[in-house]
Amino acid sequence: MIAIVDYGMGNVASVKTAFLRLGYEVEITDSVERLEQASHIILPGVGSFQAAVEEINQRNLAEPLRKLAQQKPFLGICLGMQLLFEKGYENGISDGLGLIPGDVNVIETEYILPHIGWNQLQIENNNQAFQVFQDKHVYFVHTFQARTEQNYLVATSDYGTTVPAIVQNGHVYGMQFHPEKSGEVGVDLLKVFMEQTTSVRGLEA
């Protein structure tokens, strides 16, 4: 079972539909017990970093999510990806989950913000699992971006500056764009995430 974390700030229904298309059992939940029973954890998100952290803390999910990310494949989507990092600077300074080194700040670009629309992926570090997605278009909606070291980058996108699009630290992944809104390419990206992580610690989807 795949668990989608429900903390009140995500496109949970559309994310669930995308995984259902791939044939997986999916549950939307904020129950730590149910999250512990899942094979994979998906953390979606729409809105501000600060508000998301407050919601997660109010539901007492921060520490359980950190623990689960050490045990199970974990995917953050859009704001959910940003929450994987150590700190966010939207509406003040907030602590993220600290699963990937780095922080989140406004995109430094001359282009109009927010960054909304289709943009191409550039695969980094010769990542073979995702190489098929070189130059593929995915759908972004964001004003803030992650800042992290090169070795955590799977893919980037250009928006007048280099924007991390897919990040990875072990079996923890993040996608800044919305795979659930990116058509067949988005579904295929989720499929590759599942293929790359299903064998982690002998887990099965």
Structural commentary:
With 205 residues, the chain is an alpha/beta fold. The chain has a single domain, classed as Rossmann fold, CATH 3.40.50.880. The chain contains 6 helices and 14 strands. An 8-stranded mixed sheet has the order 2-1-3-4-14-13-12-9. The protein has a 4-stranded mixed sheet with strand order 6-5-7-11, with helices on one face. A two-stranded antiparallel ribbon has the order 8-10. Strand 1, helix 1 and strand 2 form a beta-alpha-beta unit. The protein is globular. The C terminus is likely disordered. InterPro entries: Class_I_gatase-like (IPR029062), GATASE (IPR017926), Imidazole-glycPsynth_HisH (IPR010139). It is found in: Cytoplasm. One of its GO terms (biological process) is L-histidine biosynthetic process. Keywords: Amino-acid biosynthesis, Cytoplasm, Glutamine amidotransferase, Histidine biosynthesis, Hydrolase, Lyase, Transferase. Pathway: Amino-acid biosynthesis; L-histidine biosynthesis; L-histidine from 5-phospho-alpha-D-ribose 1-diphosphate: step 5/9.
Topology readout:
Elements: E1 2-5, H1 12-21, E2 26-29, H2 32-37, E3 40-43, H3 49-58, H4 62-71, E4 74-77, H5 79-82, E5 85-88, E6 94-95, E7 100-106, E8 115-120, E9 122-123, E10 137-142, E11 144-147, E12 153-158, E13 162-169, E14 172-175, H6 183-197
Parallel strand pairs: 1-2, 1-3, 3-4, 4-14, 5-7
Antiparallel strand pairs: 5-6, 7-11, 8-10, 9-12, 12-13, 13-14
By CATH's scheme, which homologous superfamily applies?
A: Class I glutamine amidotransferase (GATase) domain
Q: Helical content, roughly?
A: 25-40%
Structural class, from helix and strand content?
alpha/beta
Mean pLDDT: 95
By CATH reckoning, the class would read Alpha Beta
CATH architecture: 3-Layer(aba) Sandwich
Number of helices: 6
Quantity of strands, as a count: 14
Total number of domains:
1
So what's the overall shape? globular
From N to C, what is the helix and strand string?
Answer: EHEHEHHEHEEEEEEEEEEH
